[in-house]
Write a structure and sequence with these properties.
Length: about 210
């Protein structure tokens, strides 16, 4: 079945090239915590997408019900982005080895925190919820096999591009000094805070109009 595959591929490309806080967080995690940290964050984002797709397909009315709380979800997601941004901007430290190079050390607890930060950053984005609802309602009358192929293709493509971002960021990290990594963290923190503030503004503006 070529049609659902192509449609899933197009949707995957749309998600992969969209500019949002997740892509900057993937790069930040990969630079600060290496491939494992980046892959863990990506796993959380992918798990979030899978959850939203399943909810949109199995519980369409529940998914619509969630949109009734788009203002609360948007503000919650915004506060999460701002909190992460403030932590990265003011409190995130670059650990250095005795030879002056960056030291990467993550505990099991760090991996769990990284996974759920990716999961909730993606889930608490009303734009992501709206995207999956629109797609789900547009194919609700199509066969189950069509939807499975389409969503599977989309999710696999997005996951593949996220993995590629981790690998590319990992290569970039090897060429950066701890000082430059510290500057990237500062910039990343400002970007996350900016996205959070923009999301709050957009949520309030949107909710006041509709």
């Amino acid at each position: 079945m070529i049609a659902p595959f192509l449609k899933g591929l197009v949707l995957g490309i749309m998600l992969a090239i969209s500019v949002g806080p997740v892509i900057f967080s993937i790069i930040k995690q990969s630079i600060n915590n290496g491939h494992k940290g980046g892959f863990t964050f990506v796993a959380g984002v992918s798990a979030s997408d899978i959850t939203l797709v399943l909810i949109s397909q199995l519980f369409t009315e529940l998914f619509r019900y969630l949109l009734d709380f788009k203002k609360e979800i948007g503000i919650g997601g915004s506060m999460l982005l701002i909190a992460i941004g403030i932590f990265v901007l003011f409190f995130k430290k670059v650990k250095i080895n005795e030879d002056g190079s960056q030291m990467i050390a993550m505990s099991k607890r760090d991996y769990v925190k990284t996974f759920f930060s990716g999961y909730f950053m993606n889930t608490l984005n009303p734009g992501v919820i709206g995207f999956w609802l629109v797609i789900a309602t547009s194919v609700v009358d199509l066969s189950r096999s069509y939807r499975v192929i389409m969503f599977s293709t989309c999710l696999l493509f997005v996951l593949s591009t996220d993995i590629a971002k981790v690998l590319l960021a990992g290569k970039l990290r090897q060429k950066l000094t701890p000082h430059n990594i510290h500057l990237i963290n500062k910039i990343s923190g400002l970007i996350l805070i900016g996205f959070g503030l923009a999301l709050i503004w957009g949520t309030l503006e949107f909710s006041n109009r509709f």
